[in-house]
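Re-run with default settings, no changes from the original entry. Doing this only to confirm the output is reproducible before filing.
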Amino acid sequence: MRKGLVLEGGALRGLFSAGVMDVMMEKGISFDGIIGVSAGAAFGCNYKSGQIGRAIRYNMRFARDKKYCSVKSFLKTGDLFGAEYAYHIVPEQYDKFDNEAFEQNPTEFYVVCTDVVNGIPIYKKCTRGGHQTYDWIRASASMPVVSRVVELEGYQLLDGGMTDSIPLAYFQQIGFDRNIVILTQPAGYQKTPNPLMPLISASLRRYPKTVEAMRNRPEMYNSQLAYLEQEEQKGNTLVIRPQEKLPIGHISHDPEEMKRVYDIGREMGEQRIQEIHDFLIENG
């Protein structure tokens, strides 16, 4: 039995997932594989490197740093989250990512990106720490409209959530048969058409297949929720989600707001840690 952790995105809603993950790390919960989408990749990499508290720490520290995330950064570089500053300078200088621990941990780590030329998901297994893995994580978290397309290993890439928001089925296909899935929306949530679709279409006009994927995203996402429920009923999947809508938007410059969302995640993790433990050891 291979145990997996599946992390959806949601920008700063992902701090809920970070709170849950920190509790699991503190309790010694381990996985054979982790797959993250967007913020799920950006925060989930810290599970493989064993860096409890890192995600909330650097987000609070750089919440108001215009080089990290700001309209100024977007106007100057084309990226709301500064590509060089947020994804290289911060993890290499200011809040160092433990590349050695990441590489030594046998847990497999995957990120999901969108190939914007073909409008399909790309799944990348990251085994080495450092520059290239940081760029794959950046690509996975590069939201349309406010990010430049990331050119990497022959692909043109953006946010993985555009084409595979909850990659449970993919993880099952590659052999992870008992999975915990952390969502950042409460039960009953259904995705509706994006009111910014005209802007998205204009910004991605060179990539018509991805524009079409974005038009179809609500249907894709809601069908994934239905599949998740089906797998839960089979007993091979455990879903962790907030009890109600999280009190944060995609972007925030308020450290206290970030901390509240993280603490909601910690509280949920603490409430369900025995259930998580029991689920992972059952039949295995």
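The longest helix spans residues 255-281. The chain has a mean pLDDT of 97.
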